Amino acid sequence: MSEIIITAAPPAPRFAGLRTTWRYLVRDKFALVAVGFLVLLVLAAIFGPMLIGELATRPGLRQRNLAPFSFAHDWTYFLGADTLGRSIIARLLVGAQNTLGIAFAAVVVATLVGGTLGLIAGYTQRLYGAAILRLADIIMSFPSLLLALIVLYLLGPSVTNLVFVLAFTRIPIYLRTTRAEVMELRQRMFVQAAKSMGAGHLRIVLRHIAPLTIPTLVTIAAIDFAAVILAESALSFLGLGIQPPEFTWGAMVATGRGYLQSAWWISFWPGLLIMLTTLSLNIVASWARTAADPQQRWRLQKLQRSPR
Amino acid sequence: MNPSPILSVEGLTVDFLSDAAPLRAVDNVSFAVAPGETLCILGESGSGKSVSSSTILDILDCPPAEIVAGRIVFEGRDMGTLGPAERRDINGRRIAMIFQDPLAHLNPVYTVGWQICEVFETHGVCRGEEARRRAVELLGHVGIAEPASRMDQYPHEFSGGQRQRIMIAMAIALKPSLLIADEPTTALDVSVQAQILDLLRDLQREFGMALILITHDLEVAASMADRIVVMKAGKIVEQGPAREVFTAPQHDYTRKLMSALPAEPAAGADRRSKSERGETLLVVKGLTKTYELPKSMFGKARSLLAVEDVSFSVSQGETLGIVGESGSGKSTVARMLLRLNEPTAGQAFYRGQDIFALDPSEMLALRRKVQMVFQDPYGSMNPRMDVFTIISEPWLIHKDILPKAQWRARVAELLELVGLQPDCMGRHIHQFSGGQRQRIAIARALASDPELLVCDEAVSALDVSIQAQVIDLLADLRNRLGLSYIFITHDLPIVRHFADRIIVMRNGRIVESAPTESLFGSPKAEYTRMLLAAVPQPKWSR
User: Fold this and answer.
1) A72, part of any domain
2) What are residue B512's DSSP bridge partners?
């Protein structure tokens, strides 16, 4: 009985998994398109401003409220121009950097803070564990947009404050999920085993519990990214988000609001991009959930039949 | 062979599809059951026995499963040619199934009465008052006391055995001609198991049903089966009348299985310690644990006595068996000794030191000397760590045991000690079978050179033939390393050839404590006698 049976075991999930992940992605066409779109968007957000950055702020009197789909001007005016005659394509690219950057920063901060507090609240049975939880309840029970309005009104709108407010209102989601996960993991046998070996609290939390909460947190972060983009857009639309001359997609929608009847494209294109981005993120998150679930994974596999 | 089988399965082959080559779960399996006959499908986990029976009821998810070949003929009709509506009509009415875990298969938000009535209503037999009347009758039939008043209770208000009775009531509601029971007693205590098996036997006699009993438990199979099908890795290795299969097994695998029967006085029967009893290692005095239950709105605070006044001692090189059914407090005792739970009262002296009065640094030292092997080899090791990390963790915690340079060599040594190849230390835990995982868990427990090993149901999650191997390993290690064991189990026969002394626990109290020989030879307590009698007897010898 000293032989090792590995034939029936699934392949090691991490490093050999990269190619498998790609295969699963190809099997789900929606997810493939969504990932493609997001990659393109990230590339555009990183390199776009370098290439055509100054075009986004250069007004052109001749192109004021230029309608889209006209070849009369440069290709950068293909999607039209805004009230000051600035190219919408250029503004979308530059706005992508702000929009995605703020959302990314907010999600990372919320995940780190929420995850850490969740680990503590889930692991400890002391009073401060409960205190953390009540704090989360308070944040949750207060309408997040209203809270953001008040804070931004008091502190004044800036990119840092915006990230802070967005992260702060999202913390409870990560905190609650992590806590629930930790409470379950804490009872798991291997944690008991580590305890009986004499492992301290810090070792148990960092080595045995925290690594197992990461996949869940990453999945939530992907979905939450979309929600943060929407929240940021809403704040910018209300004028409490980012301030001119900086702008985001949400701010672009806001500028176009007054011209909806005469120049719909000013609001339409940034709105479309917000919608496509959140949609893509949701599709990718749902794909990731299927791929990570051993019970559902076969849906993404090429089912090979045996010959008969 | 009966000339007119009620169900025959011919050449059934089922694959599970995935990215890799399809996994053959069931391979060319053929068997038949006659009316009134009991067929036992015997096999260890993963042998394809449950997949075969799910195919009969058409409750297998396809895909990922795929029926590659085979025919299922029930009462002369080929099930493959029937439409979904006809198939549904057969399920429940003509063929019924009971499952291993009745809590998971009863809907928690409906009363049991409602759920039994539903069976009548879905099949359009009767409804309303008539359905209720018949449901009460059925509950009484399967041995639920005061059926009329218990009709309106929810599944969680019943005990495990009662829930299984309710499942059986639902299954026999429409007097099916075939009942499939998938591990019906595995989740139950021995004494309850005996009652459920009796019930199944009585009902079968009364209704003349055919019964397909799927089990991994040799004793259950022997006590119920007329004929036996032995499966391994999706194939049938042997089939025939129960008596022949048990007394004169043909196939090697069957022979190996039969030798794992604890009741058999096999060659390796004596696994008890041979060495002289050494000095006393552990003395436990009056150990007590009470749980405070939350106050109900009007009543006063109640408390639950989990362990009450338990005292025993363990000497060096000795094996102490603690036997009891679920809820007897045996695991709580183990957890208190390892300080995973704090006792309410009592003392435990390890080499004269009171375990419950140690300061943190003394406690850390004690954790080296007392190690625990847990029940579930799937859960007791971190799934994200490889074998080397798992086994070397004690050295990371207790920094003075071994310098880091020697870790690799020592892990290899430990793996060899428990019968695994040293080169598997880079693998993750999901790549091992249950028995191999438990060996790794034992290697980890041995890493800190312990003196006392507490095994909490250490073999209960393993298949029968693997159980014997792991116990052999433990016995061998004890003789070589001079270890002492506290071996906790619900399974009395398993400790018969392993423990030197046995403590029988019930409801938190010690019922009987005696050397193994005298406990089995002349049990004093009524409860011990009942436990011993609850071990199923073969059908042919009754």
Assistant:
1) no
2) B504
For residue B444, the chain A residues in CB contact (below 8 A) are: 193, 197
Do residue A301 and residue B372 have CB atoms under 8 angstroms apart? Answer: no
Question: What is the predicted ipTM?
Answer: 0.70
Whether A277 is covered by a domain: the verdict is yes
CA atoms within 13 A on the CB side of B200: 32
Contacts of B299 (CB under 8 A, 6+ apart): none
Asked whether residue A308 is domain-assigned, the answer is no
Of B17, B340, B397, Cβ closest to residue A199: B397
Angstrom distances, CA of residue B469 to CA of A112, B292, B395:
47, 41, 28
Sheet order of strands, B235-241 included: B95-98, B178-182, B210-215, B38-43, B227-232, B235-241
Please tell me the distance from the alpha carbon of residue B40 to that of residue B229, in angstroms, as a whole number. Answer: 6
Which tokens sit at A32? 């493939």
Does B22 lie at the interface with A, CB-CB under 8 angstroms?
A: yes
**B280-292+304-534 and B1-94+179-261 share a CATH fold:** yes
* A146 within domain boundaries: yes
**Separation of CA B148 from chain center:** 33
Both tokens assigned to B503: 């403590």
- Do B106 and B118 meet the contact criterion of CB atoms below 8 Å apart? no
Domain boundaries, chain B: 1-94+179-261, 105-175, 280-292+304-534
Query: One digit per residue, pLDDT tens: chain B, 542 residues?
Result: 445 788 888 888 888 877 777 778 888 889 889 888 899 998 877 788 888 888 888 887 777 788 888 888 888 888 878 888 888 888 888 888 888 777 778 888 899 889 889 888 888 878 888 888 889 988 888 888 888 888 888 888 888 788 888 888 888 888 888 999 888 887 777 778 888 888 888 888 888 889 999 988 888 888 888 899 998 888 888 888 888 888 888 888 888 777 766 554 444 446 666 555 678 889 999 889 888 776 655 666 677 788 888 999 998 888 999 998 877 888 889 889 888 888 888 888 988 888 888 888 888 888 888 988 887 777 888 888 888 999 999 898 888 888 888 888 999 989 988 888 888 888 888 778 778 888 899 899 988 889 999 998 888 777 777 788 888 888 888 888 888 999 998 888 788 888 889 999 988 889 999 888 888 888 888 888 888 887 777 777 66
How many independent structural domains does chain A possess?
Answer: 1
- Which residues of chain B are within 8 Å of residue A305 when distances are taken between CB atoms? 15, 17, 22, 66, 68
- Structural domain span for residue A185: 27-57+86-294
Cα separation, A36 vs A290, in Å, equals 19
Max Cα-Cα span within chain A: 84
Cβ partners under 8 Å of residue A209, min gap 6: A119, A123, A182, A185, A186, A191
Task: Using CB atoms within 10 Å of the CB of residue A19, give its burial: 0 to 12 exposed, 13 to 18 middle, 19+ buried.
Answer: exposed
Give yes or no for A298 touching B (CB within 8 A): yes
Tell me the C-alpha distance between B390 and B388, whole Å. Answer: 5
Cβ <8 Å between A190 and B379: yes
Running DSSP on this structure, what letter comes out for residue B399? T
Query: In chain A, what residues touch B381 (CB-CB under 8 Å)?
Result: 190, 193
pTM: 0.74
CATH architecture of B1-94+179-261: 3-Layer(aba) Sandwich (3.40)
Q: Which residue has the tokens 């259950």?
A: B220
Helix, coil or strand: residue B356: helix
Q: Do A305 and B17 touch (CB under 8 A)?
A: yes
State the CATH number of the domain containing residue A210. Answer: 1.10.3720.10
Are B64 and A6 inside 8 Å of each other by CB?
A: no
Give the number of beta-carbon pairs within 8 Å between A and B. 114
B280-292+304-534 belongs to which homologous superfamily? P-loop containing nucleotide triphosphate hydrolases (3.40.50.300)
Helices (H) and strands (E) in chain A, counts: 11, 0
